[in-house]
Fold:
Amino acid sequence: MRINKYLAACGISSRRGADRLIDAGEVFINGQKATPGDRVNDGDEVVCMGRKVYPVENKVVLAYNKPSGIVCSSVSQAGDEINIVDALDYPVRVFPVGRLDKDSRGLILLTNDGDLAQEIMRSCAGHEKEYRVSLDKPFEDGFLERMSEGVEIELEERVYRTKSCRTYRISEECFGIVLTEGKNRQIRKMCAALGYEVTDLLRIRVGGVKLKDIPEGSYVEVDSADVRSV
Structure:
């Protein structure tokens, strides 16, 4: 088995996340630093971030209502920042599927199933993510139309046009938006490009999993079939 797939099977991260750990020199096979493409055979000892790792048998998916101020990382943060894994304090090692920026709150999924995480994070899978967004001032219906058609934003030192999406009005200063992509701080950048500032961003759905009545800072276990549904 390739080393990145093995780490995903151990519940360390998605395969993409595993590649980053390998590139960072955090993974060893039988005492030798792993490189991308290395294979793990029966009986091999794999160490990641200083501890031996093994494939997990009991896979779990959690729906967590993330408060604002928590960083979506499975690695402990420096200074006063709190990472999501430490905040969750779940008895089994899990990692976040995708991200929700520090200033945003609401639903995020965590799992020890690396293959499921990989599936969800593939943009081509088209999993829907729904948000409730509050702005700094009232907006006209034309704003929602422009958002739904796609907006040009700055992304990694280039101009990127977001994919078309669904929008709907909630109040004079609040709207809902359903995306099938998740670029870094995408909604905030889209709103800024049209002259608005986001004052609150709450994710209320990922695929078939809804935030519903999960209290802020709490989690529930969910069925992976719900995650795959749209």
Notes: The longest strand covers residues 198-206.
